[in-house]
Specification:
single chain, alpha+beta, 133 residues, 2 helices
Length: 133
């Protein structure tokens, strides 16, 4: 279990083995109640914590070796369990905007990333994931 801090200051325990994704929070997730949340962690539930993603990711990775990351179009890192994604997936010319060069399927959604398909494949392999294409 990983112990982190909820926006209200309480301690929360997260089973790192169940983490699917972690990323920085976006504006809609930092409302009045969660104003100081810095990281969103998707596992059995969605958990917001005040620790930054660059603090959270190494702690989860220590307990989940297949936890790795790719880069989103805004330059931030999205961390995920390489065993729970599909990819790399090809992108069409019209999808190649804002630096998009490849994508993965994560949590039922397509995640566009700036890495090339070859780089995505290498990241997934290094983390023990199943590159498909």
């Amino acid at each position: 279990m990983v112990t982190l801090t909820a926006p209200d200051g309480s301690r929360v325990e997260i089973n790192a083995a169940d983490v699917i994704r972690a990323r920085r929070t976006v504006s809609g997730e930092r409302d009045d109640e969660n104003g100081n949340a810095q990281t969103r962690i998707d596992w059995a539930i969605t958990q917001l914590v005040v620790e930054r993603i660059d603090e959270v990711a190494p702690v989860i990775k220590q307990a989940l070796p297949s936890f790795t990351c790719l880069t989103t179009t805004d330059g931030s890192k999205i961390w995920f369990d390489a065993l729970k994604v599909s990819g790399p997936l090809p992108v069409t010319p019209s999808q190649k905007q804002n630096g998009v060069r490849s994508s993965i399927r994560l949590m039922g959604y397509r995640q566009y990333v700036t890495e090339t398909p070859e780089e995505v494949r290498a990241v997934l392999r290094q983390a023990g994931g199943p590159p498909e294409v």
